[in-house]
Fold:
Amino acid sequence: MMESQLVMRQEDFDRVLAIVQKLVRDANAKSVFVVDKAGQLVSEAGELQGIDSTSLASLTAGCVAATGGLAKIVGEEEFPIHFHQGQRDNLHMSLVDQRMILVVVFDERSSLGLVRLRVKKAGNGLAKVFEEIRKKTESEAETATSPFAEITDDDIDNLFSD
Structure:
């Protein structure tokens, strides 16, 4: 089954951004990113200025997809939480609402325990927002009519006939 496209309006974006900004503060993180599984950046907040967020988004999606393949090999559906520890910075990635990825970049100013605790709360908030967006999008799609709905085959034949 193909998933429908989400349509984010400004008020939806503002709600997502508020949750992401709060997570940066509450987790004492350097930055937080919300990425969809297709690799598109949805939202970002924090101090990582100048970072190539487009590459970060697509590589995050690729990492989650590759790890999903590993999960299937070992009999799991998916690994919903990923953690990468570096010398200076760490990445915590978690799946939100089955199609979004929440990425938290943090350093020694925070801890994995604090990040996990704050991500759980923020993830629940984001899942609620994305579910509301999805319902709104689906509702609008059901009521929308195509601009081509009233065009008949005869109309097309008449348009292209000499």
About this structure: The chain has a mean pLDDT of 89. The beta strands are 31-36, 41-46, 81-85, 90-96, 100-106.
